[in-house]
Specification:
57% of the residues lie in helices and 7% in strands. The protein is built from 11 helices and 5 strands, in the order E-H-E-H-H-H-E-H-E-H-H-H-H-E-H-H. It holds the Pfam family Sulfotransfer_4.
């Protein structure tokens, strides 16, 4: 949250970074920093899988549903195709659900580095609890169900739960999820490709990891809590407006349907 979906660059754009940090670890800040350093668009999977093009949303839902069920060689090739199709034209990926799919993305882009944004576990959990206090509410999918693209939100949440169960053994993000997630990255990623990074450290360590010069611009900061809350209330507002519109249509159809039924009955009696 806090920024819009990005458009892919031209075909053949080199994919260089798998952003494998858990949500609320500075992923949106790293997104903007990588866009500057690598001079190309970053595929923020949280944003693209919920607010990208209709095709991107469908591809992400397909990938999220297919990965836990990939038992055969052809299943794995289908996953390779979905990953390459989604990430064509991007220089990096970011956030969840992509952060849960590091091995699958690395299989398609073996030259990429895996960059895990990290932070103090206690402060991360406070931030995650704040986000869950409104994004995890039971009524949000109901409120936005009439919005274009938002109808996939309920399916997205169910498939994210399935991914969490399949990968980590629990169906929601918990206090220990950050540690479990980072330990998993250490197990599945070759050490020479795995880097941990705190966005509070700025350009220096990041540029050293990517072997690029430090740019002559301030280090970005993105997605503060106020921005996240603002996006939430925008969704709530337009969701309520869509419900008013839908109920008005239902009332109109019911009212005139009842009148036509009454008139038809009256004509029969005559």
């Amino acid at each position: 949250m806090g920024q819009g979906p990005s458009l892919p660059g031209p075909p053949g754009t080199k994919f260089r970074v798998i952003g494998a940090g858990m949500s609320r670890t500075g992923t949106k800040t790293l997104n903007e920093a990588l866009t500057i350093l690598l001079n190309g668009p970053v595929h923020d999977s949280g944003i693209q899988s919920l607010g990208g093009t209709v095709r991107q949303i469908r591809l992400w839902l397909g990938l999220m549903g297919a990965v836990p069920k990939a038992y055969t060689f052809s299943d794995r090739k289908k996953i390779d195709w979905l990953v390459s199709d989604l990430l064509e034209g991007y220089v990096a990926t970011m956030d969840c659900p992509a952060a849960l799919l590091t091995p699958e993305i690395l299989a398609v882009y073996p030259e990429a580095v895996v960059l895990v944004t990290t932070r103090d576990e206690a402060s991360w959990w406070r931030s995650m609890e704040y986000m869950n206090s409104f994004m995890g509410t039971y009524y949000l999918p109901l409120v936005v169900m009439w919005l274009w693209k938002a109808q996939a939100y309920g399916k997205w949440r169910r498939r994210l739960k399935q991914l969490l169960i399949w990968r980590y053994g629990h169906d929601h993000i918990r206090r220990d999820t950050l540690r479990v997630h980072e330990d998993y990255q250490r197990r599945v990623v070759p050490p020479e490709k795995l880097f941990f990074y705190d966005v509070k450290d700025g350009w220096g360590p990041l540029c050293k990891i990517l072997d690029v010069p430090v740019p002559d611009v301030p280090f970005p900061h993105n997605n503060d809590k106020a921005a996240a809350r603002r996006i939430y209330w925008q969704h709530m507002f337009w969701g309520i407006v869509s419900w008013v519109f839908a109920l008005a249509i239902f009332y109109y159809l019911f009212y005139y349907g009842a009148r036509l039924f009454h008139q038809a009955g009256h004509c029969v009696e005559v």
